[in-house]
Amino acid sequence: MTTTPTLVGDTYLTLKDKLSQMEGGKVTSTVIDLLSQTNVILEDAVVKECNDGSGHKTSVRNGLPTAEFRQFYQGVKCSKGTYTQIRESTAMLESYSEVDKSLADLEADTMQFRLNEANAHLEGMNQIVQTNIFYGNKNINSSAFDGLANRYNKINKDKTSIGSKVIDAKGKGDENTSIWFITWGELHTQMIYPKGSKAGITHENLGEVTAFDKDNKMFQAYRDHFKWDLGLAVRDFRSTARIANIPTDKDGLANIDLIDLLIDCYYSVNRYRKTGKTVIYVNETIQAALHKKARKDSNVNLTISEYEGKPIVKFLDMPIKCCDQILNTEQKVTEAA
């Protein structure tokens, strides 16, 4: 089934839009619905096909051209901006599902039964993708892609540094969490997929196969293969920001002003996010704390309203969404040396 895509900024398809246009029948359509129920990033992430095979080359401007005042019959020097070229990589995430053929054949809708049995595989992939968007680190797992926390990993007052977009909530130790302001867009943060492939999960029905039980005895089964090739690219680090070192213990959380931190983060990205869509991502601990503030404190910056047909807490014009993969056990982010 093909749906009319929703555009971000009237231009770019989100990952959910791309997935909903995939072909493959009922099973694939149901996969999309299952994933979007538990992966809020699917609703927001802009996707871009790689321009360099399995990787994506992009240029980040780090210097502006110069200009000069001049007089009649006096020239000026030619100048140009300076750029750094970055190549972002993609990763391959795969899973196989098998169900006993005799059991599946008892069902009126064999394909739906197979998908139901594959739900654990799909949810596992879903959680891995969300975790990797925030915490992926190629230095730890070279098969994965670098996530946001591995990029916004130091606090730095230098405005030309990515560390200037890391705001310190002053938590200590290893019981901290983060709030993320992510701006999705062509010039901002985007998900990428290999050139010539499809965005999102692809499903292949491998049909009937001979499978083996734990004792290496054979039985007939239906096998399905799920594959998700993806990466993350940050074109303009200034439009995405992190509030780090938010203490998650009851006393620590009570002693910080979340609204002040949100305001600081808002102004950190606001000038640079105009052509994208900014969404705030938090975990359940922070979402509950903000909801209580919106309900009790009559804070004009926090409101409870509808977003895409659902009630949601918003900060100014930005929806606040819950992502379970944002940890409560983050190590303290320190200042750059």
Please characterize this protein's 3D structure.
It is a single chain. Helix content is 23%, strand content 33%. α2 packs parallel to α4. Strands 6-11-7-12-15-14-13 form a 7-stranded mixed sheet. Strands 3, 4, 5, 8, 9 and 10 form a 6-stranded mixed sheet that branches. The chain is α+β, with helices and mostly antiparallel strands and 337 residues long. The longest helix has 26 residues. The protein contains 7 helices and 15 strands.
SS class:
alpha+beta
Oligomer: single chain
Unreliable runs: 1-12, 21-29
Percent of residues in beta strands? 25-35%
Q: Average pLDDT across residues?
A: 84
User: Tally of extended strands?
Assistant: 15
Q: Helical content, roughly?
A: 10-25%
Shape from CA axes? globular
The major beta sheet can be summarized as:
7 strands, mixed
Radius of gyration: 23 Å
The secondary-structure element order is: EEHHEEEHHEEEEEEHHEHEEE
Compute the number of helices: 7
Strand arrangement within the widest β-sheet reads: 6-11-7-12-15-14-13
Distance between the termini: 53 Å
Question: Which keywords apply here?
Answer:
disordered N terminus, alpha+beta, 337 residues, 7-stranded mixed beta sheet, 6-stranded mixed beta sheet, 7 helices, globular
